[in-house]
Amino acid sequence: MAARPRKRSNRNLPDYLLFEKSSGQYRFTLVTGKRKHLGTDRVTAIAIAREYNLRMRPEMTPSIEGLIRESGGINGEARPFSDHAQALLDRAIADENPGHDTLSVWVNDIVRVKEFFADIYACDIDLEHVNAYIRKYHAGTSANVQNRKVSFLKKLFSYAVDESLMIDNPAVRKKMRRVSAKVRRRLSLDDYRRIYQAAPLWLQTAMDLALQTTHARLEVSRIRYSIKKPGEGVCGCVWFEVPEGDIYGTLYIHRQKVQHKEASHVAIPIGIALKDIIERSRDNVASPYVVHRLPLKRSNPTSKEVRHPTQVAPDYLSRSFSALRDSVGVGSGLPEEQRPTFHEIRALSAFLFDKQGIDPQGRMAHSDAKSTKIYIENHIEWVLVPHGEIKTAS
Questions:
Q1: Mean pLDDT by 10 residues, the chain (394 residues)
Q2: What pLDDT score was predicted for residue 260?
Q3: How many Å apart are CA 84 and CA 79, to the nearest integer?
Q4: Domain shared by 24 and 87, yes or no
Q5: Quick one: which of 43, 177, 229, 254 could link to 143 by a disulfide (CB 3.0–4.6 Å)?
Q6: Residue 18: which H helix or E strand, with range?
Q7: What CATH number is attached to the domain comprising 90?
Q8: 55 domain residue, yes or no
Q9: What is the CA radius of gyration of the chain?
Q10: Any idea what the CATH number is for the domain that residue 341 is in?
Q11: pTM of the predicted model, to two decimals?
Q12: CA 255 – CA 364 distance, rounded (Å)
């Protein structure tokens, strides 16, 4: 049925605006069906009606903004966010150079992002979409996991804002879930000794190095017997031609977790304890790494963190420690997530150094360390920490 033609007096008025002769006022119909009088001034009534229709009835009201939107936007902001997701991720990877594990997580996450935002324009993304994304893919996960997924969206959207695809970052407005404090039990010296006594030589070496240096599995697994000179991403020993008293050389460690901070470059004097650990680790396996072993299955895929067949992967180091911990009964009365891991040797080391009156902060590659000395070696600033050793004999 054709719409009834408008009266001559209303033909030039915006849609839903009429002039009532009886009252001399202009009457406008809202999207709810309710009618509203807009007064007697024709110019004002027309302006209000046009603006209302533009905002509330955009599908039937031509506008420059609407035409730009239909064209995909000036910068592509009116195209599905999935069209931009991969390029934004590639930029984040190039800028931030994430580690292998982080990169793997990002690659998995971007698949979900492309799926979820396949029909949602970049310029339309709001907090409601962030909430819906988390509900769809991560509803049953822990607070830690959900917070990490929100952080990933926040990172991705920040690049979208930078490229004028979004006006603001809605993930910033998302309230992070409260995370419970760590409940993992600390590793005592007695626990350390129980695990150590049952460990194979390569694992004892890793535990000894972690205890004497305060460093974690990644750095410990990277320590080389000898390096010509220290450098970025290198962990290894530079030996003196002639010992300087009880010091035989310097162990250089570049801690990856804080690799962009000055404190991440640590130079530790090699005293008798460290020298004995390194010498004791030598066996009939030819390896450049202090912590080494022959792989049981050569067909196993090599970890991205491994540069030599005999080098022990950080993940394998952690798993072996935890398995041995369970076999000797350390923390057996606790849930698995509360049992001490290899990383707890770092905390034990810091505690023991502090107990001996030696500040562990610089040795641990923490900023604002006391009793440390900064010096230049191979154009890199290194934190030279005081010599110190931990006695583990009972």
A1: 57 86 91 91 91 82 56 65 93 88 91 93 89 93 91 94 88 88 80 95 96 90 92 88 93 69 73 95 93 72 73 92 94 87 90 81 54 51 79 65
A2: 44
A3: 8
A4: no
A5: 177
A6: strand 17-20
A7: 1.10.150.130
A8: yes
A9: 33
A10: 1.10.443.10
A11: 0.57
A12: 9
Read off φ and ψ for residue 306, nearest 5 degrees. -105, 135
Packing angle, helices 314-328 and 189-198, rounded to 10 = 100
Say how far apart CA 270 and CA 278 lie, in whole Å.
10
Q: Residue 8 has what pLDDT?
A: 61
Tokens of 320: 């072996």
Whether 238 is covered by a domain: the verdict is yes
Q: What is the pLDDT of residue 383?
A: 77
Please answer whether residues 251 and 223 qualify as being in contact, where contact means their C-beta atoms are separated by less than 8 angstroms. Answer: yes
Burial of 186 (0-12, 13-18, 19+ CB in 10 A): exposed
Beta-carbon contacts of 204 under 8 Å, excluding residues fewer than 6 positions away, are 196
Strand ranges of the sheet holding 223-224, from the earlier edge strand across to the other edge: 223-224, 235-244, 247-254, 265-270, 380-384, 373-377
Q: What is the pLDDT of residue 276?
A: 95
**Do 343 and 217 meet the contact criterion of CB atoms below 8 Å apart?**
yes
Tokens coding 317:
């180091």
The one-letter code for the residue type at 78 is A
- Those residues with Cβ within 8 angstroms of residue 305's Cβ, 6 or more apart along the chain or in another chain: 100, 218, 221, 313, 314, 315
Q: Which two tokens stand for residue 283?
A: 């066996």
Residues in a beta bridge with 374: 383
Residue 321's contacts (CB-CB under 8 Å, 6 or more residues apart) are 195, 203, 206, 207, 341, 342
211, two tokens: 């205890």
CB 321 within 8 A of CB 342: yes
Residue 116: which residues within 8 A CB-CB, separation 6 or more? 129, 132, 133, 136, 137
Q: Where are the beta strands (DSSP E) in 136-295?
A: 223-224, 235-244, 247-254, 265-270
CA 320 from centroid of its chain's CA atoms: 26
Helix (H, G, I), strand (E, B) or coil at 259: coil
User: C-alpha 228: how far from its chain's center?
Assistant: 33
**Same-domain check for residues 167 and 217:** no
Q: Are residues 52 and 130 in the same domain?
A: no
Place of tokens 């809605």: 170
Collapsing DSSP to helix, strand or coil, 238 comes out as strand
Quick one: which of 68, 75, 87 has its CA closest to 165?
75
Flag whether 318 is in a domain.
Answer: yes
